[in-house]
Write a structure and sequence with these properties.
The complex is a heterodimer. Chain A is mainly β. Chain A is built from no helices and 2 strands. Chain B is built from 4 helices and 20 strands. In chain B, a hairpin with a 6-residue loop joins β7 and β8. Chain B starts with a strand and ends with a strand. Chains A and B meet through β1 and β2 of A and β10 and β20 of B.
Chain lengths: 14, 257
């Protein structure tokens, strides 16, 4: 089963 | 002093309907350029980025940049008190307001109502989203996208989107069985029912169907939706709001363990 990623794994906090 | 008027409240109602199920609250950042909202859903899986440019408003005045923390359910309750054809004015008196007013005027000026809403302090994370050249950019009718998401949501939690030169394919499977919908690129790109694909390289990505269904709440805003995809990065789903702005949804992909 594919695992759901968190958006913060792709885009950094500003 | 902040004041922004739209000739018809319908557009603001549609915008709110497009975000209120994903977000409980959000900061409305108001500047001379317009109003922007960027907020993640509670689970940090999706992000909403809304832009309403000042030149799209009938009247717009923003003396100082201000941030309004809005409970979206409260704002939706207030917007439901307007008729679609009412002129709506959003007004905040202070530079650091703790409340905002919504004034609705009927088209014949015979009914004027105003509602004051308390604002909140929202300490929200902001993400820096770089400009990205996506491998595939698909434009398709927004109603078709909504239909596919709704139909396939019955079969499984995950939706696989595959895009190639031939077209775009949506697939899912679950206890009940499996489902596939393929759309071919159409020949006439100018029509509202056109499907167009700009492709650098083919892409296959898996997403949670539930969030895609939330995004389709923006369908009444635009006849077309744009899907931008690259391998292993979030999907961008974009709806234009007339000539005044757009609503973008970002959705983190599911990746094999």
């Amino acid at each position: 089963t594919p695992i759901q990623n968190d958006l913060q794994e792709f885009y950094a906090l500003v | 002093m902040f004041e922004a008027s739209l000739a018809q409240s319908a557009i603001l109602k549609k915008v709110l309907d497009a975000i209120k199920d994903l977000l409980n609250e959000a900061n409305f950042e108001c500047t001379d350029d317009g109003i922007k909202v960027q907020a993640m859903d509670n689970s940090h899986v999706s992000l909403v980025s809304l832009e309403l440019r000042s030149d799209g408003f009938e009247k717009y005045r923003c003396d100082r940049n201000l941030s309004m923390g809005v409970n979206l359910a409260s704002m939706a309750k207030i917007m439901r008190c307007s008729s679609n054809s009412d002129k709506v004015t959003i007004k905040a008196q202070d530079d650091n307001p703790d409340k905002v007013s919504f004034i609705f005027e009927s088209s014949n000026q015979e009914r004027i109502s105003d509602y004051e809403m308390k604002l909140m302090d929202i300490d929200a994370d902001q993400l820096g989203i770089p400009d990205t050249e996506y491998s595939c950019v698909v434009k398709m009718p927004s109603a078709e996208f909504a239909r596919i998401c709704k139909d396939l949501n019955q079969f499984g939690e995950s939706l696989v989107i595959s895009c190639s030169k031939e077209g775009i394919k949506f697939s899912t499977s679950g206890d009940l069985g499996s489902a596939n919908v393929k759309l071919a690129q159409t020949t006439d790109a100018d029509k509202d029912d056109a499907v167009t694909i700009e492709m650098r390289s083919p892409v296959t990505l898996t997403f949670a169907c539930r969030y895609l269904n939330h995004f389709t709440k923006a369908t009444p805003l635009s006849s077309q939706v744009q899907l931008s995809m690259s391998d292993e990065i979030p999907l961008l789903v974009e709806y234009r709001i007339g000539d005044m702005g757009c609503i973008k949804y970002y959705l983190a992909p599911k990746i094999d363990d």
